[in-house]
Amino acid sequence: MNQSGNKKLSQKDFVLLSAPLMAAYRAIENQRNDRLFYDPFAAKLVTPEAEAIALEDPEEDGRAYLAVRTRFFDDFLLSFAHVAPQVVSLGAGMDTRAFRLNWTEGTKYYEIDYPEVLNYKDAILKDMPTTCHRYSIAIDLTDYCWVQQLLQQGYDKSIPSVWLLEGLLYYLSDSEVHALLNTIMDLTTTGSWIGLDLLNQLCKESTYDEFYHGYFHSGFDNPEELLATYGWKAEVLQPGEEGANFNRYIHPFPPRNHENVERVFLIKAKKII
């Protein structure tokens, strides 16, 4: 995959580009007869630059992974939303789940991301109805004022919640990941759920795909241990494994006891402490 003009972007500019780029991949998936999810809004959010990059990308495995990841977290959210009436999506990007999924009545759905991202999305989808109460919190996640804004918008940390950190943590440093997970631990009660994806250390350092090289800043070889530190009991899958293939990503990673393998993890975890 090549960046537009082969120009190396700043970290923030790359993250800002990734939001409409993920929408472009979802729009491509939505056109398939065997699509893994229905997203009629994705195409509305695609920028010309993101569309050009997505259409030039020859990596079928990459597209399959992103489709599987989207479906995995769709299923995750809907599985637990009925027991946790508040959902928090950190680094929400151009995600449209607040609009396209059928939410339990009364669900509060909080989206938090850069102002450049959410203001753009809000302007385009402002007239689209939702089955949840959607709250848009436009702020840089490294500015921990987002916590205060979340609470001011009615988030109640005394009742269960569902958190989504899709395509987020590997853009943060190890210390930023730990700080964020510690903050989420303080905001969640027993019985809450969290969904996230992680890279292992070797994948973080990979030079296989020049498009992403240099933009990933954290990798964790033992997600179960990482999440247990903050009170979560995790179920960890790799794309291709049962529950994370949907008959699309059919080439599983080697077992985790094999060394020197670049790995991606899809994770759902329950707060037990």
Give the helix/strand layout:
Elements: H1 11-30, H2 48-56, H3 60-80, E1 86-90, H4 97-100, E2 108-113, H5 115-125, E3 133-138, H6 145-152, E4 162-165, H7 174-187, E5 193-199, H8 201-204, H9 223-228, E6 232-237, E7 264-271
Helix pairs in contact: 1-2, 1-3
Q: Classify the secondary structure makeup into a structural class.
A: alpha/beta
Broad shape: globular
The major beta sheet can be summarized as: 7 strands, mixed
The percent range for helix content is 25-40%
* SS strand fraction: 15-25%
**Helix-strand sequence:** HHHEHEHEHEHEHHEE
CA-CA gap between termini: 42 Å
Supply the number of helical segments. Answer: 9
Please state the CA-atom Rg, rounded to the nearest Å.
18 Å
- Low-confidence segments, given as residue ranges, are none
The pLDDT mean sits at 94
Quick one: how many beta strands? 7
Strand order of the largest sheet: 3-2-1-4-5-7-6
General description of the model:
This protein is of the alpha/beta class and 273 residues long. 36% of the residues lie in helices and 15% in strands. The protein has nine helices and seven strands; from the N terminus they run H-H-H-E-H-E-H-E-H-E-H-E-H-H-E-E. The protein has helices at 11-30, 48-56, 60-80, 97-100, 115-125, 145-152, 174-187, 201-204, 223-228; strands at 86-90, 108-113, 133-138, 162-165, 193-199, 232-237, 264-271. The chain has a seven-stranded mixed beta sheet with strand order 3-2-1-4-5-7-6, sandwiched between helices. Helix 1 packs across helix 2 (48-56) and helix 1 (11-30) packs across helix 3. The longest helix has 21 residues, at 60-80. The radius of gyration is 18 Å and the shape is globular. 38% of the residues are buried. The model has no long low-confidence stretch (mean pLDDT 94).
